[in-house]
Amino acid sequence: MLREANWKDRIMYALGKRKIFRVQGDSMLPTLKDGDAVMIIPTKLIEPGDVVLADHPYKSSVKILKRVTGTDGEGRYLLTGDNPAQSTDSRTFGSLSIECIQGKAVCRMSK
Amino acid sequence: MFDKWRNAEFEIAEAHCDGPCGVYDPSQARIEAESVLQLTKKILDLKMPDGGDAKASAAYQNTLTRFIAIKEERAELAKHHLLVLWTDYFKPAHLEKYPDLHELFWKAAKTCSACKQEVSLEHAQELMDSIKRVHEIFWETKGKDVPWFTAS
């Protein structure tokens, strides 16, 4: 579950400490729905359970939003959609290195 | 101010299936399986010419060979389309709802091979029946009521 953004989040965004992305797709339902805006803290400090923004491993210009569900034997991250029936994720493209992780979602602004 | 942010243009973060999602359709396998069924019928109905007529014999063998080659090719395509659905479209969440899914695809793929090895109306029809079940499950997962139909 991601909380709704509050005024502190907005100040942090205004100060350039956070980035906002528009969610496209249903793979993160019910946490995030298509059209929601999500605030991201740029960080590499993530852990299982976090919703993260990551570079798509095979499409250089595409960023994806998934939940960290674990790590593989080599410390790479396994990402899965909260709505696995409609998600392409680590089950298809495998684990991701930390270099692919761009940040962690902290709150949302529902559509 | 909040509404302004809600509707503002932001960079896109994708949270969906990759491109192929949405263009999966068991119809691809169904069309190939229908061809297998029709070719099996044609092979069984083909009349062997009387001995001694070299021209008729050549025509017969040419036709039979074509039927067999196309049946082989279409059965392989049916198997390919089934495997794509099985491995790329269906996810573990579907398996929870349809626990016989693996068995269904495994048997359907095996039936494709049987249709290549034999000239069996029974197996060709069995393949159609399996694909019909895949069709039903597939569209249920999509939440759409798509009736089963055949082209032939």
Describe this entry's structure for a reader.
The complex is a heterodimer of chains A (111) and B (152). Chain A has a six-stranded antiparallel β-sheet, with no helix packed on it. Chain A is mainly beta and 111 residues long. The longest helix of chain A is centred in the N-terminal third of the chain and has 8 residues. In chain A, strand 3 and strand 4 form a beta hairpin. The two termini of chain A are 16 Å apart. Chain A has one domain: Umud Fragment, subunit A. Chain B is mainly alpha-helical and 152 residues long. Chain B has one domain: Four Helix Bundle (Hemerythrin (Met), subunit A), CATH 1.20.120.400. Helices cover 70% and strands 3% of the residues of chain B. Chain B has six helices and one strand, in the order H-E-H-H-H-H-H. Chain B is elongated. The model of chain B has no long low-confidence stretch (mean pLDDT 90). The interface between A and B is medium-sized, with 35 and 22 residues.
Helices and strands in order:
The complex is a heterodimer of chains A (111) and B (152).
Chain A: H1 7-14, E1 19-24, E2 37-41, E3 51-55, E4 63-71, E5 77-80, H2 90-93, E6 101-109
Antiparallel strand pairs in A: 1-2, 2-6, 3-4, 3-6, 4-5
Chain B: H1 2-7, E1 11-14, H2 27-45, H3 54-89, H4 92-97, H5 101-117, H6 121-142
Helix pairs in contact in B: 2-3, 2-6, 3-5, 5-6
* Range of strand content of chain A: 25-35%
CATH architectural category of chain B = Up-down Bundle
CATH architecture of chain A: Ribbon
Can you tell me the residue ranges of chain B where pLDDT is under 50 for at least 5 consecutive residues? none
Main sheet summary of chain B: none
Number of domains of chain A: 1
Q: Provide a count of the helices of chain B.
A: 6
Question: For this structure, what is the CATH homologous superfamily of chain B?
Answer: Nickel-containing superoxide dismutase
Head-to-tail CA distance between termini of chain B: 60 Å
Please describe the biggest sheet of chain A, giving its number of strands, its sense, and whether it closes into a barrel.
6 strands, antiparallel
Q: Going across the biggest sheet of chain A, name each strand in turn.
A: 1-2-6-3-4-5
CATH topology of chain B: Four Helix Bundle (Hemerythrin (Met), subunit A)
Q: How many domain modules of chain B?
A: 1
Structural class of chain B: mainly alpha
Helix content of chain A: 10-25%
Mean pLDDT of chain B: 90
